[in-house]
Amino acid sequence: MKNSVCFLLLAGLLAACAETSVQPMSKDRFKVQTHAAPACGPTGARTLAFKAAAIEVIRKGYDKFIIEQDTTGSGLQGDIFNGMYQNFDQGMVVRLIPERSSEAHNALSAREILGGDWQKIVSEGVPNTCA
Q1: Parallel, antiparallel, or unpaired for β 64-79 and 108-109?
Q2: I want to staple 40 with a disulfide (CB 3.0 to 4.6 A). Which of 28, 77, 112, 130 is the partner?
Q3: What is the pLDDT of residue 130?
Q4: What residue ranges in 17-82 does DSSP mark as E strands?
Q5: How far are the Cα atoms of 4, 5, 39, 53, 108 from residue 63, in angstroms, in the given order?
Q6: Which of 63, 64, 28, 58 is nearest to 126 (CA)?
Q7: What is d(CA 12, CA 40) in angstroms, rounded to the nearest whole number?
């Protein structure tokens, strides 16, 4: 019974874990990389990376952006003594689009993606959970 409780607690901790980083690539491009725990799944990792991209676009003073590259992956983490679990990775290369650019009509709006509370979301930053 104790082992089951410990396992459920560990699984709950792993479910909440996600880490996102942003790497500048040029003045108008950056990469978002999200590493997420098993409970997030590939969809949770993708959603979190997309949200992080929108937040970073606004922080850089823009609203419009295009995803130029999108990569996904998964892997196993852990060891044979404590158990293995699958994790998920999502990478996106984002290009900032000036509002008056000819590409703006086809670009995504960071504010629309984040919704009406976009200012609060940007001020709080990227969450460390997929929930």
Answers
A1: antiparallel
A2: 130
A3: 83
A4: 18-26, 29-36, 64-79
A5: 47, 46, 31, 11, 8
A6: 58
A7: 11
Say whether 61 sits in a helix, a strand or coil.
coil
| Percent of the chain scoring above 90 in pLDDT | 72
CB 44 within 8 A of CB 88: yes
Q: Which helix (H) or strand (E) holds 8?
A: helix 2-16
CA-to-CA distance for 40 and 111, rounded, in angstroms? 24
Structure tokens at 28: 């108008």
Residue with tokens 């044979």: 80
The pLDDT of residue 13 is above 70: no
Pick 107 or 80 by higher pLDDT.
107
Domain positions in the chain are 2-124
- State mean pLDDT over 35-51: 93
